[in-house]
């Protein structure tokens, strides 16, 4: 009997040792599964483009400064947590954060992430950079093609008169003419060059040949359109015209 008890005890002990050696490791969170939530840094241009009605614009500079137009709230960068009730309830709403120079907004952005917000965007350089961006826009000037219409007066059928337009780049960037076309084969446009440096102006010559079709379609008072397209986002398309009273002799 003792021998059976000893054998049984030995088997149980052996099983216990085996189970202890192969016990499963505690469940831990793999580092690869941890999402590293970060905020986005935006330039003044990118920041400005994202200011829409569906975002939350937050000024965190202290002392309080003149706010960017459309600002939804002013909360000091070090008082974000205790003013959480003034923040959007929706944790996924886009939040645009700014201060004066960018330092306070970086701290505030980190705090917003810790509160569970998932779409936090920080203005690089703060309101100083944004004000400079707006100033540059005001200084930018315009890209123009003048005059709007060139009147060729009376044109004898068979003659090929020319009109001249001035393309002036008053902006602060290089502008390329990406496409130049006309409304009719009787009209052709020839810009002096296709790339204009800031402050540069060129001449665009336009020829008009009413006899090109060989019929009477280009007789009488006529208007033809010149189309110019550029790579400048604010001055993408132009339409200028020439007019003429074409007569046969």
TrEMBL record:
Residues 78-139 form the Rhodanese domain. The keyword Transmembrane applies. It holds the Pfam family Rhodanese. PROSITE patterns: RHODANESE_3. Keywords: Membrane, Transmembrane, Transmembrane helix. The keyword Transmembrane helix applies. The chain crosses the membrane at residues 5-22. This is Rhodanese domain-containing protein.
